[in-house]
Amino acid sequence: MRILVVGASGLVGQHIVERLRQRGHGATAVARTRRAGVDHALDATTASVADLRALVAGHDGVVFAAGVDDREIPRKPAYPAFHKGNVEPVARLLTAAREEGLTRAVVLGSYYTHFHREHPEWRLTALHPYIRSRVEQARAAREAAGTIPVAVLELPFVFGRAGDRLPNWSPPLEKWARSRSPLVAPPGGSAATTAGRVAEVAVEVLELASGADIPVADENLTWQEMFTRIAAATGNPRQVRPLPPFVVRVGLRLVGVAHALAGREPGLDTAHLSHLLLRELFIGEGTPGAVEPALRETFSR
């Protein structure tokens, strides 16, 4: 196959390009800026359908590995910014893919869409603009694709490294783990996976032309387990003490007040974020130690 990978310079995008080539497929790497390994520089948030048709022509499939993550704190209201970064480019890309006769597609999404399906009573799309954009992303992708099967990989915390690329959320955690500040963790936790594993799944579903929603999770970690292992990986192992839930709730509300005073709105509403952070957002049984090599690769120097 020939596969176009949009967002190919990112952590997961680089792994997908490498995995495609290992499997004998052709991979065309597209990213916002030109750098080593990038075949075409293109900003997916501004590219037209015509621009994208010129790129996807002659390919069998496409991967969207770009988008805006939940760390963004745009001006209020937040949803238009997340719609522009996550929904509109995917809709245009899959429209171009349909018009050029491609036969398969993969979109890298968020595991919050998995929990949205499993727990509609949590009202995640009503409360959190970022999660709403991810749900709309999947819907818009399939609507634009027509009969092309679109697999959506629902990703939790992703550990790993690709050259100088690390997970976007890892630098502040590494700085904290290496500091002399106390390490504390609230109840709850998250599923986790690795960039290499995401790439394996992405290539498998491209080969199968699958159109499924696929949560990708290899290990379930409590926050205490995660922070303890991160500290050990940095070479500064120490005890992680419990943090009472009420401290998390108060802290998040104060952060929310600061955002409001600045006229900004986060993608995950701080007034309701504790309902997620204090839960065990686990997927399946998981395999203890499955992400350990990638975790150490992320945080060791």
UniProtKB/TrEMBL annotation:
An example Gene Ontology molecular-function term: aldehyde dehydrogenase (NAD+) activity
- What GO cellular-component annotations does this UniProt entry give? cytoplasm
InterPro entries given in the database record: NAD(P)-bd_dom, NAD(P)-bd_dom_sf, NAD(P)-dependent_oxidoreduct
**A Pfam family the protein falls into:** NAD_binding_10
All copies of the NAD(P)-binding domain together span 7-143
- PANTHER family per the record? NAD(P)-BINDING DOMAIN-CONTAINING PROTEIN-RELATED (PTHR48079:SF6), PROTEIN YEEZ (PTHR48079)
Mind telling me what this protein is named? Nucleoside-diphosphate-sugar epimerase
